[in-house]
Write a structure and sequence with these properties.
heterodimer; A: alpha+beta; Alpha-Beta Plaits; two-stranded antiparallel sheet; 5 strands; 50% helix; elongated; B: alpha+beta; two-stranded antiparallel ribbon; 17% strand
Chain lengths: 215, 184
């Protein structure tokens, strides 16, 4: 396979940089996924257990008892305080968990501004939109790139850049990536005074111009 | 699946929260109105209690609801498990750069290159991280040497393309031939 050699001369690489660039590829859906699997698992287990109980696998006597078992009702009457506290705690826990989950999944992805170090008490803030626009504009001018989009992602403390390139179908992907690094990202880092900026690049195929209708 | 999960997640979260709030409110309401004949704030608990106490576990309705719940849980688990990204990693020129592409882009790229061949009448391509499946259509009888030539030319085209695109892992290429009837 003839690919560009992975560079080793970039100096000691902080593994967190690689992680940041990898998580900048797209919005993470890990939280949503694990919660969906967890809730699904609970429902599946409860449903299967109740179905087995109902078909008398755990004994006919057990299956014949009422849903609201007198045993449990008696316990709740005897320990009214404990039963109520448990019920209230469960309700509050469910409410908090549900609200946190809903809020996390509808919250838009952050676009952190870049805070640069400057001498004295001055602080320079580069707005995320400015970085995105500048990088996208320059990337679009590269040969082989039809369209480009860039935005900041991550947090203010650990920002990263996400670049989407729509490539012409006959371009040489490796050289476009090299050009992006050499002509866009490296100057951007220099201009912003950053030593490191994790980047995630997404490659798409540009729609070719429509063929002439008369040949 | 990812879109479905994005829609489903807030709905599920809000449903959980609503159930929790309802439970807490009802218990507190019943607690503070001790002694009086409670009817519940929203949910008619006494009727529910009577109904639940007179229904046994072995009734078909209970089994049906349980099976429905289990199926719902299974579907939810499958949606959660299937909602992962299908990105194809591409070798990046720098270590703090991650480059990915989509199976759709790779399939379109392969399809465009393959269709440019003179002996190819049409092609459909499916791509994933591990495998590229090319269905190429040729004219005439493809059982003999013509078929072999077509297969070789398609394989060479895809191979040259994969040399060009620095995928982190070179996918296996499978070519299937089909005959297109009619005039060339």
């Amino acid at each position: 396979m003839t690919t560009t050699e992975p560079p080793t001369a970039a100096g000691p690489l902080d593994p967190s940089l690689r992680r940041r660039s990898r998580s900048a590829v797209a919005r993470s859906s890990g939280g949503d996924r694990s919660l969906a699997v967890l809730v699904g698992l609970v429902l599946l287990a409860a449903g299967v257990l109740v179905a087995l109980l109902s078909y008398g696998i755990f004994g006919a006597a057990r299956a014949g008892r009422p849903l609201l078992d007198p045993m449990i009702v008696d316990w709740m009457r005897d320990n009214a305080l404990a039963a109520r506290l448990i019920a209230i705690a469960a309700g509050v826990a469910l409410a908090v968990l549900g609200l946190v989950w809903a809020a996390r999944s509808v919250r838009p992805e952050q676009r952190p501004d870049l805070r640069l170090e400057a001498a004295g008490d001055t602080e320079i803030v580069v707005l995320s939109g400015a970085v995105g626009e500048a990088v996208a504009e320059q990337a679009q001018a590269l040969p082989g790139v039809g369209k480009a989009r860039a935005r900041m992602v991550g947090t203010t403390r650990a920002p990263a850049l996400r670049v989407t390139l729509w490539l012409a179908d006959d371009c040489h992907v490796a050289s476009v990536l090299e050009a992006l690094e050499a002509q866009v990202l490296a100057p951007a880092r220099t201009a912003l005074g950053l030593t490191q900026l994790p980047v995630a690049v997404r490659l798409e195929l540009d729609n070719p111009p429509p063929p002439p209708r008369v040949t | 699946m990812r879109v479905l999960l994005r829609l489903l997640a807030p709905v599920l979260g809000l449903a959980l929260a609503a159930a929790g709030v309802l439970l807490a409110i009802e218990v507190v309401a019943a607690w503070t109105r001790l002694g009086t004949d409670q009817a519940g704030v929203i949910v008619p608990w006494p009727q529910w209690q009577a109904g639940l106490a007179s229904t046994s576990w072995s009734e078909p309705l209970v089994a049906g609801i349980a099976i429905g719940t289990a199926v719902l849980g299974l579907v939810l688990m499958l949606v959660g498990a299937a909602a992962r990204r299908s990105d194809i990693p591409v070798t990046a020129p720098r270590p703090e750069m991650t480059v990915t592409t989509s199976p759709r882009m790779l399939a379109r790229l392969v399809g465009q290159r393959v269709r440019r061949g003179d002996d190819v009448a049409g092609a459909d391509v499916t791509a994933s991280k591990r495998r590229i499946l090319v269905g190429a259509q040729g004219w005439g009888d493809l059982d003999g040497s013509a078929g072999k030539a077509l297969r070789t030319s398609v394989e060479d085209t895809v191979s040259a393309l994969l040399d060009d695109v620095p995928l982190a892992r070179r996918p296996r290429v499978t070519v299937r031939l089909a005959q297109r009837r009619g005039v060339r």
